[in-house]
Amino acid sequence: MQHRTFWLDSSDSVPLYVNHWRAEGVPGEPARGVLMVAHGMAEHSGRYARFAEALVAAGFDVYAHDQRGHGHTAQHGSLGHYADQDGWARVVGDLSTLNHHIRQQYPQTPIFLLGHSMGSYIATAYLMHHSSSVQGAILSGTSHQPVRAYKAAALVARLERWRQGPTGRSALIDWLSFGAFNKPFEPARTAFDWLSRDTGEVDRYIADPLCGFRCSNQLWLDLLGGLQRIGRIADLKQIDPQLPLLIIAGERDPVSKGQRLQQLADALARSGHARTTLKHYSQARHELLNELNRDEVTRDLIDWLEQALEQPRHRPSFPQESTP
């Protein structure tokens, strides 16, 4: 396997740090497919290396970028902060930039999208405008709630922005979000037990200086505003109803707890989407690719990608560079 990293200029010239994993072989030799990854909040794309190795062995190339305010991309901004203005549109637009770059390198190769947690919401927003640019999409550790719930949470974030400023880091928001996620696992060994049953993976997350940080009040407002824009049936109707979608989560994932995952599948069905597959993993928590049963999850994702390859929808096309 070959692994390289490079910087890719976004539409507003902010450099994005990108990981690219591919099989060793003749330069230009086509892969079966390409997977682009949108990681979650307070982590980075380098954490997907093990998963990428399995994908490469199955014939898929993988691209994963550090999103704005995350990983090495945050060197050109601030860790935990998308942007001072239009942060949501910019992170969604970055997926367009990456997809356009991949399509230039792989003109005829099917491209798939995997979005995890925060990345799943960004991926959903991207699909509303650019479904034709991908062959299928996987949403991991995701959820769906009424728009009013996101509006109520945004009120708290707006008050914290007024109190601390846009780049302030609110202990209250952190407690209401991540603190609440860990409550089902008390007495907890760490503050991040909700991520995985694998204690080694949790410890690696805690030891990683690019993981587990507090995000800015403005990022939370950007995210909650974005969630409102993808939460309505009318919004989801913008996604190609024939686009293959796989929605996965751990049975004990606090992000998708209760009916939130089923509510997403139901919302997609009401929007007219006809090709949604929903899968829970027993006892698993939030980070399925770092869970005790990660090999099972990886096999399932590869199987789904292979099945999607056998059911081509149309010739892949370029997304527009404009942001929603």
UniProtKB/TrEMBL annotation:
SUPFAM superfamilies: alpha/beta-Hydrolases (SSF53474)
Domain Serine aminopeptidase S33: 30-292
InterPro entries given in the database record: AB_hydrolase_fold (IPR029058), Hydrolase_4 (IPR022742), MAG_DAG_Lipase (IPR051044), UCP037442_abhydr (IPR017208)
Superkingdom of the source species: Bacteria
Coiled-coil region: none
Pfam family, one: Hydrolase_4
PANTHER family named in the record: PHOSPHOLIPASE-RELATED
Protein name from the UniProt record: Lysophospholipase
